[in-house]
Automatic annotation (TrEMBL):
Entries under Pfam families matching the protein: 4HBT
SUPFAM superfamilies: Thioesterase/thiol ester dehydrase-isomerase
UniProt xrefs under InterPro entries: Cytosol_ACT, HOTDOG_ACOT, HotDog_dom_sf, Thioestr_dom
Organism placement in taxonomy: Bacteria, Bacillati, Bacillota, Clostridia, Lachnospirales
Name assigned to this protein: Acyl-CoA thioesterase
Entry keyword annotation includes Hydrolase: yes
Residue intervals of the HotDog ACOT-type domain: 1-109
Amino acid sequence: MVETVHIVRPTHLNPAGRLFGGVLMQWIDEAAGIVAKRHCMSNITTASVDNLRFIRGAYQDDMVVIRAKMTYAGWSSMEIRVDTYVEDLTGIRKPINRAYFTVVALDETDRPKEVPGLLIETENEKAEWEGALKRRENRLMRKEEGF
């Protein structure tokens, strides 16, 4: 699990004065990548992002907290759930985004390699694993359909 914090600066804003989605995408991709690299101890690549759901905006000077956690490990792929919040000065966090990343471990020749298994200890982790299996099945169906 990884948690990062960013301050929204003027260079991060879109013309409407909200955090630009591309900047947030970079931040959450980096957090997911760190989780995956720590787990497989090798280079990785982002294979897909799904369920990228924008709940509300973030604005200049907001503190954006990103929490990334692995939910599934297959042979070479890993699913990382990334939740993003705006945190106010009292520490209260309001969700602004959730996404699921599929990340693949790579060997020295940039070919997929085997990753360690994921230790499931809590009921919440078990539920995430079960959800990840369903999301994986949906991804494979979409791939077969050409999406």
